[in-house]
Amino acid sequence: MSEVSPADWDACANPAGRCNGGSYGTSSALPGDSLGVLRPAYNPFVSHAFLSAVEKSGSATIRTGWGPRHLVAKIDGRVAGVVPCYLKSHSQGEYVFDRGWADAYERAGGRYYPKLQVSIPFTPATGPRLLVRDGVDRERVMEALASGLVALCGVSKASSVHVTFAREAEWKLLAQHGFLQRTDQQFHWHNEGFAGFDDFLATLNSRHRKSIKRERRDALASGITIHWLTGKDITEDAWDAFFEFYMETGSRKWGRPYLTREFFSLIGETMSQDVLLVMARRNDRWIAGAINFIGSDTLFGRNWGAVEHHPFLHFEVCYYQAIDFAINHGLAHVEAGAQGEHKIARGYLPRTTYSAHFIADPGLRRAIDEYLKRERAYVAEAGRELAELGPFRKGADEAP
Hints:
Elements: H1 6-13, H2 48-56, E1 66-68, E2 71-75, E3 78-83, E4 85-88, H3 99-107, E5 115-118, E6 131-132, H4 138-155, E7 160-166, H5 168-175, E8 180-190, H6 197-201, H7 206-219, E9 225-230, H8 236-250, H9 261-270, E10 275-282, E11 285-294, E12 298-306, H10 313-328, E13 333-335, E14 349-359, H11 362-387
Parallel strand pairs: 5-7, 12-13
Antiparallel strand pairs: 1-4, 2-3, 3-6, 4-5, 7-14, 8-13, 8-14, 9-10, 10-11, 11-12
Helix pairs in contact: 2-9, 7-10, 8-9
C-alpha cells in the first residue's frame, strides 16, 4: 500500500466518503455512466486503513502467500484508479473455491500458481474492485484497469486473474475483457424500513416468528448481557477478548485464523468508527463476540467466537443483534458472511455473488468455461428453491 498515498487510494476506493456519526447514505449515479456503474456506497474493506492493516500486521504478505501487486492507473501523473491485487501461491482465505481447477491443471502438467487475486484478503463481502476517483472519465479508467489486469497477468507470469465478490456491473465489464463469469450465493437480510425488531417479526409466518422469539429468550437465559462496542468504546482489553474468541473458532478442524492480533489493534487505531463488536458478557467477563464492519448502507458480519457455549447465543450475537443494529442505524442490508443455509429461517435470504476469472491457458480456459456454464445454472436454480424456504408470510390471510 506504500506506492499510493492514503488520500489518493481512498479518493478512488470511497469517493463518496465514509459514514460519519451514524449518517448513512446510498450509492449515487454519475453523469454519463453508460456502464451502469454507480459510485459505490462507503465500503470499509476497500479503504486504505483496512488494506494497510492487513499488510502491516503480517496477515497478508509475501510470506503468507499474499504478495501485494496493486494496480494503479494515472492520468497526467495523478492517480485515477486502483485495484487491490495480490500475487498468490495458494488458494486459501478466498471463499471462491478454485482448488479443483488448480489440481486438474497441475495433473495435466500445468503450473497454476502463482495466480493474481483481486479481492479483500480473508473477506467474503461484496464490494467494488475496480476503484475509480470522481472527476475523471470513469468508463475510460475502468476499461484501462480491466485491460491492465490482463497485462499484469502476463508480466507476473501468473496462470490467471480472479476478481472475487465484485459488483455485478464490474462482473459484466470484465466479461468484455475475456474474463469468465462465475456466480455463487450468500444469505443477506434486507431492511424494509422497519421501525424495530418487532416490525421485522411481523413479516414472518407464525412458526418462524415464535421460533426466533424463543431463540432470543433462550440465548440470554443464563444471565448473559449483550453490548455494542464501536469507536472509542473498543479498548485493547476488548480486542484481547475478541482475539481469544477468534482463535478459538480458528482452532477447530474447519477453521484457520488468518488474521494476527496486531491487525485488530491497527484497525482499532485507524478505523474504529467503522467497526462494531457485538459482545456477550456473563459473570463479569466477556464470553463471546462477533466483529462487524459498518458501511454507509450495509452492516458486514465477519468473524465470531466464544469461550462459553450457550444455546442460540451464536444466532443472537451474529444475526439478531446485527438486524437490531441495522434497523436502529438506518442500514439497508446485513451481509452475514459466507455459507449457512440455516440463516434462511432467520430472515436472511439467498443473494447472488459475482466473480470473474481470466485464464491464460486456452485449454484450461475452455474446460473452466464449460464448467461455469453448468455451475451458473445450478446456482440460479438452487437460489430459487432456497428462496421458497424463506420464513416470510406468503399471503394476507396469515395474521402476524
